[in-house]
Structures are given as structure tokens and as C-alpha cells.
Amino acid sequence: MSGVPSQNAAVKLSDVASSLHMQMMSGGAGKLYTQQDLQTVTGLKSLAELMLIIQELVDKNLVKLVKQGGDLKFQAVDTSEAAKKSSMSAEEALVYSYIEASGREGIWSKTIKARTNLHQHVVSKCLKALESQRYVKSVKSVKFPTRKIYMLYSLQPSVEVTGGPWFTEGELDVEFINSLLTIVWRFVAEQTFPGGASAPASACATGADAAQYAPNVRNWSSTREILAFIASAQVANVELSPRDIRALCEVLVYDDKLERAGGAAGAAAGEDNYRVTLQSLLQLGAGGESAGSAAQGDAGADDSDAAGDSDAEGFSVYDYYNGLPPASGDREVVYFDEWTL
Amino acid sequence: MEGLEIPNLPQQNAAEGSPAPGGPDMSDPELRNAISSLEQRIENPDKFLATELIRSHLGERAATIIDLLMSLGRLSISEMKAKTSDEWKVRDIKATIVSLLQLRCVKYFDETSFTGKHTIYYYYNPDGPLLMLYSGLIIDMINKRYPAGTNGTDAGEDDVTAAQIVQNVLTFGSISLAEFLENANASSDYNVASLFVKLCDDGFLAPISKLNFTPLDDLWTVLYDKYYAAIPRTSPLSDLRKRVEAKGRAKEEFLNIIENNNDPSKIITTDAATSLRTVHRDVPLTFNLPRFLKSRRGRHLVQLARFRVGAVSAKVYSAALKLTEKRSVDLVHPLTQTGLMQDLEEANAIRDEVTLLEERGANFNAMEIAKHLSPSLNLKDSLVTQKRDSSSKKRAKEEDDDEAIEIPGRKKVKTKDGFVVPNLPSHAQAGAEDEDEDEDEDEEMDMDDEEGVQSADTINMINMHLRLLANSSIPFLKETRPGVYHVPYTTLMPIVRSSIYDYIIASTLGQSAMRIRRCIIANSLVSEKVINSVALMREKDIRSTIASLIKYNVAEIQEVPRTMDRSAARAVFLFRSKESLSYSSMKQNLEWNIANLLFKKEKLKDENATLLTKANREDVKGNEAALLLSSELNQLKMVNDRELTTYTRLTRVLSLWELFKFYI
Hints:
The complex is a heterodimer of chains A (341) and B (664).
Chain A: H1 4-11, H2 15-26, E1 32-33, H3 35-42, H4 47-59, E2 63-68, E3 71-76, H5 79-87, H6 90-102, E4 107-108, H7 109-116, H8 120-132, E5 136-139, E6 149-152, H9 159-162, E7 167-168, E8 171-172, H10 174-192, H11 199-206, E9 212-213, E10 221-222, H12 223-233, H13 242-254, E11 258-261, H14 263-269, E12 273-276, H15 278-284, H16 286-302, H17 306-309
Antiparallel strand pairs in A: 1-3, 2-3, 4-6, 5-6, 7-8, 10-12, 11-12
Chain B: H1 2-5, H2 10-17, H3 29-42, H4 45-58, H5 60-72, E1 75-76, H6 77-83, H7 90-102, E2 106-112, E3 118-124, H8 127-145, H9 162-172, E4 174-175, H10 177-183, H11 189-201, E5 205-207, H12 216-230, H13 239-261, E6 268-270, E7 277-279, E8 285-287, H14 289-308, H15 311-325, H16 344-361, E9 364-365, H17 366-372, E10 383-384, H18 389-397, H19 433-447, H20 450-471, E11 478-481, E12 484-486, H21 489-509, H22 511-523, E13 526-527, H23 528-534, H24 539-551, E14 556-560, E15 572-576, H25 579-607, H26 609-615, H27 624-627, H28 630-661
Antiparallel strand pairs in B: 1-3, 2-3, 4-8, 5-8, 6-7, 9-12, 11-12, 13-15, 14-15
Helix pairs in contact in B: 2-3, 4-5, 4-8, 4-25, 8-9, 12-13, 14-15, 15-20, 17-20, 19-20, 21-22, 22-24, 25-28
Pfam families (chain A): RNA_pol_Rpc34
Organism (chain A): Maudiozyma humilis
Subcellular location (chain A): Nucleus
């Protein structure tokens, strides 16, 4: 506020106008005043006098007129902002006002052209000038990657424009997502199985069957727990919401790595619960398991009661990651695409 | 030469097949084979498979007839004569049909035309080729279920096994006890008879009757027409009412006929001399394919359970399935083969009926399973009833989640009398009242001898595994009453199929393809943008994956035009998945691959025909090392190896294919 008098002096305001402006500013930057409000603030009875003062402020760009629901309202503008505006040409100010109005959503350059009715050249010249003075900036929209979106230099683009935490500079940050997916999966795995993520792999190495939780144990994690874990581990430098976590979990569900769990209990609490699928765990332990399953097979053959267990062994497509690639000279390989060729 | 044999090169083959002067002669059987395989590739794989199977088992002529029947539907002998080459005599056709009939590859139906003329029409019967396809697996399964020497009496080295009986049944199509005894030199007739009884009891053998050779939809039509005609013309009922009534009566009789046919009590009698159970000596018995397919169905479920719930639970589940296999509902409801499924109401009614049968039919509880579990199975350490310390500490911080936390002090109660029960149900403490009763039982049991405790403990563990299976995200079991479960096949099988499909896709097109497929199914109709934001994948990755998904009929494109001229540039493309289409395409793909494997195997044998005949000569057998050249030995080894890999692959593809073929 200390700089205000000197700036006021620079734009040479009458005392009444400057005091009104200061009063309006003290009410907060975004506050809107009606005509009556201003009358009470200034203590002026005559509208004509008030009009003169307001006109002076409007001329100096220190007050903005805002239409709200059919009523005309007044908003004070910061002096530095006013100085900015007064240094602009008329076209630049016009363009600037539209960009300013678009807020955090930003505005497409074509829309500016359509709204201002200015020629393309003029608009682009204005935008260039404004950009070079760092009044506005262009951002990349995730929704419309080809469009040039402008917004005020000081603003952070909204979630719709940036696409949320998964986007870094308008590009889907796959590495970030994948590492988060792994973290989420590992966290849930710790909850789902007694041995955590490494249990079946280690159990297979010893030839034993992995232990599981009994049906009464609550072996799932809610999105809230996952979020709390991620927040505490400080792995993400952006803030994540429960919705983002749910999105991550859904991706894992599509990958068949998590499954929804908890049925009625979770639904009643209004949150989603997830559990790791055993399949994904076995897949992770693929390296160690191939030896283990072979050992299991041998054990089954020695067992005279093998008939009971034979169904569980043998070929299964769920085991595909354990398969060996066919030898180059193998002519009996079954190709998935041979028929459609 | 190599290029000609690889069926992947259609253009080359087609070009060389054209009758250019000096080009390859079309009468060259090898080339003709290559071209006919090409045609079969384009035509339906079903036919390719059936003809390949028939060709390798019954020869070229039988294959041609099956080909005709599959392409043209039913045919009479004279029609077949007209369609085949002039060299064929009616006698040849009839002779071929006899062997086809014997192996259940053909059905027939005697139709009377308006003029009163009787014509016997022949139909293709898929049972025969399927039995040929599955013969190895069938014998393997029978061998495992009825191992030699477990027949009660002490069996000699050369005694008849169940697998031998089944093998004979498969070879001859059907066989009666008397016929078998005549030709087998079994040490004891009673042993054989008791094996027959066992096989009949378990439903693997069934009497062969005219019904096996009658096309069911024709039977249905005859019955329906009969009852429709039986309603007098003067009846005041509306036509709709008449139809409903005729349908109702026809259904009743249809089901009766089928039920009577499958009634095992008709074949099993008591031997007057020994008062032992035996089968009628002269009733020809055949292999019951649907019964075998039930065991395959169980296998798929167990596999899924192993990968979704856990290995031990899968073993418990396997025991449960084996226990109820015989009583479980049939794979195919006979009425579904009558064309009644066209009517939505009928289809719903049939489905409801099957679900009801499931609930009523094969119920079981832990006690029954305990008797059938392999004693080597260690249930004790398979379940952990308490969360690990680290996580429960973490949980303890959260005040509202305390219902899952165990109270540490209470565990000591369990370890009284010096008997340490490591994983006894601390879940009883969670407050469920029936669990409390269980616990009381345990404590009473503690007073008894050690063995009693053991068995109670086992049953408790089995119960927990059953609960795990029932509470899993896939409903492996349903609880009919507390403690009594049944297997909901109708809801399970579609899940099994779709998960197998998912993993076929994942194993061939990659993990991302599976992610997109599941994403499309979950959101039913999606644009690329939606996939991008929901499945969190880069758009260029999505595009390349989707292209292959569309190629293999996993997903479909729906075009939404945005301009009047429907210009493609402005249109939006959405993706959706129609599962029935994807599955049928997958079925055909796998079917074609099975057929192609058989085709390649036959070709391999043809190529090495001289060597194989030499190796199979009586004087060479056993003395291969001495009588064959080293190059011939190497060749023989290669042929054998390749045949073996063919069968391995065949069995694997078969285990995938059957899901899309039968369990619908």
C-alpha cells in the first residue's frame, strides 16, 4: 500500500477519486460495489457528483464496470494493474480484458478474434505484445492440443486445461503413472497377502503353497488408505485427490492386478476398496515360480493320489508368462494371427 | 519346394495353381492339398477341423462325405451320389456311411414326405469327431481316475484297466460287456464287469440308442407337429393358445425321452449267480461325451481358482467339484438344441430352470469334502487369521477401522491343554455368532482325543477355504444354506470364458491390449479420449493397440458422423466390444489352429511315408539302431519329436478352444 500514493500521483487523480479508490480497494480486490454502496462510502447524495468521480476512475482504468445479473456494479482495480492497462493500446486492452475474463480456463485465440471483432493480424500483434510484456502467457490444453490458449501470466491453469496430475506439460506422464501404479499395487499387496508382494514367489521357491488370509480378515485397502500412504511416502510432487487414486486403481483393475473387494461394507462407507489379484502376484514371481511349479509337478507324479490334484497342474493360459519362446526351427508353433492372414 | 508347403503364402500358391502351360500340375496331390487347405482357411474352420479329423481316422472318402454333409446340410444317399464323383458307387457311399455311423460321425432321420415316400437323410454329427479329438485326453483322464490295480481285488500284471475298456469303446464306437469279454483275456470276468459298473455308475459309459443318432431338432419338430395336429381343428382355442399347448406337451415328452435314455438303472442289474452288480451283457455301451466335458469344465474352474484365490483353496475346490461332478447340471440343456432359444421368454425360462437345478442339485458341505481330500494336503498353515503386526499397528491408528483388529490377549485361550492350534479362528472374536458356536465346538473337541481335534480342525479349515471361494470377487461357490454350498455354473462359466479370453489377448497382443479391452468393456462405448483419460495411456499407444484389437475382432468401431455428408475426416470414432462376436471369432481362430496342427501332422507323415513304413515293419521294430541308417534314425527322431510337439500344442489349444465351444 505504501506505493499507492506515489502511483496515484503519477496518474494524477483528484483527491476525492483517490480516496474513493483507496476505500474500494480496502474492501478487498474482488469486491463489487453497487451504486448505493458507493454513495454510502463517499457520503455523496448527488449521483451527478458521484458519476464524475467514477468517470475519472474509469478513465484511468482504476475502476472496472461489471454486469452482474442485470445490475451494473463497480470493482476497484489495483493501481499497478491500471498502470498496465493504461500503457496498452486500445486493442491490446480489449484483448487483455477478454483474456482476463476467461480466468483460469484460458481463452482460445480464435475465440478472442471472434469476440473482439478484430482482424487476425491485429489480434496476433496484440497477443505478441502482451506476451512479450509478460502480461499473458499461452498454455497447452490437454483437451485441445492444437489450440493456442491464453491466460493471465500470474494464473495457474485449471485442471481441465492441464489434465490433472497425470499430465506434465500437456503430455501424459506415463513413467510417473507407472511408478505410482507399482507403488499402489505394492501397498495393496501388503494388505492382501500375509507375506506381502513377495509371498507367493518365495513360497514357490521353497515348493510350499503360499498362505492366505482367512476370510474374516479384512485384507483390502480403501482408496483413503492408499492416498494416506502415498501422501506420507511423499512420492508424488503434485497433490493427489481420492479421485485420482480411484483412477489409478481402476487402471490396475483393467490390468487385472487389483479387484474390487469389500462388497457391502465398502459400499456403505461410500468408498472403493481394492484387493490385489493373486494372478498379478504370481505373474510378478514368474522367474522364481517356473522352477517351483516344476518341482510341484514332480511331487504330484510321485504322489499316488495325484489324480485329485492333477487338474490344478498342467497347461493354463494364466501361466503364459512362464512359457518359453518357440525355437526358431520349430514348425509346429501355433500363431494367433495365422488364421486371419 | 518349401515355399509351397507353407500355407502362409496364399498369393504364391494361387499364382502357381493357375493352369499356366508348364506350370505345376493340378493333379499333384501335394499341391492340391495346399490349395484345399487354403480354401478351408477361408471357409469355416469347423469343417476344416472335422474333415481333418475324419481324414486321419477314417480316410479320404469319409472326409469327403463329412465335407458334403457340413457344406450342404442333410443329404440322402442318392443326393450324395449326385454330388460325388462318378467313380463312387452307391455301395461305396453306403459302406462309408456305416463306418461313420459306427463312430457317431453321422446321424440319420427317416422322413416321410407328403406322398408317403420314406427317405433317410443323413446329418453330420459332431460327437464322433469330438471323441476323436479328445480321445487322448479321455483315456488319460480315465487312467487317472481309475488307476490300474485299485479295483479292490489284487490285479495281475495283464489285467484289464478302465482305460483299456474306454479305449475299446472309443475305437469301435460302442461295445457291450459280452463283446469285450469275448475278446479280452481278462483273468476275472467279475473284475471287468465291476469296472463296467463303475464307469456306468459314474456316467462315463452310457447305452447307445437311437437317440444318439437322431437329430434333436428334428425330433422336436416331429413331437411338436404331433401335438399340434392332435388338437382338433374345431377347437375354440386361438392359434396362439394351440401353439403354447402343443409346445408344453412336446417339451414334456421330449425331456422324458432324453431322461429315459440317460437312465443308468436300465443297464445295471444284479448278477443272479453272484448277486454282484453288473451291467447287461448285451447292451452296447458308448462313451458319454457330455460327462467327460463336465470334468473338463471342473478343470477350468480349478485352474481359475488356483490363479484367483490360491493353490490350497483350488485343491479344496477341486475336491468339491469332483464330488459333485456327477450330479451337476449338464453342460447343455437339451431344449437349447431345439430352436426354442429363439424365443426370448423360452430362453429365459430355460436359464432359470438350470439355475434352479444348480441350487437344488449338487449341494455339499465341508464334511463331505474332508472325506475326499488327499491326505497329503496340508491345510493347517494355509490360512493366516491375523494380520501381520506392522499392518495392524498401522490400522490401529485409524480409530474407525478397529473391527478388523484382533485383541492380542485372547489368543492364549486357544492354547490350553498344551495343544497349540496355530491358526485357529480368531475371526470368531470379530463377533459373528455362528463362529462363536464353532469355537465352542473346538473347545469341546479339545477334551477329546487328538485325532478328533485334528478332524474338527480340518473341517474348520475347509470351511474357511469354502468361504474364501464364496467371497471371492468371482463367485466360485454360492452358499445355499449356512455351511452348504453349490457351484453356480451358469454365472461362473461366462466369467471363466472372459478371463481366459483376457489372458489369451494379454499373452498374444500384450498387457496393454488387455487393459484397453477391459476398459472398453467396463465403459461399454468409449472414444479414444476416454481411454486416454481412464486407462491412462498415451494416445499413440492406444491407437496402435486398438488397431490390432480391431483386427482380431476384440473391439469394434462405431462411427459417429458429425457432418451431413458423413465425411470420415470430421467423424468421431467410438469403440465398443461385442463379446459374443469376439468369442466366436476366437473360437474359429483356435479351431482353425487345431485343424492346422492336424493337417501339418498328416503332411509330415506323408512326407516321411517311406521311412515310417520301414520303421513300422515287423522285422525293423525293436532293432531300429541296427537296421536303419543314422540319417534315417535322425529323421525318425525328428518326426517323432515333431509329432509329440504337435500333440502338446494341440492339447493346449484344445483346452482354450473348448471354453468357447461348449461352455456357453
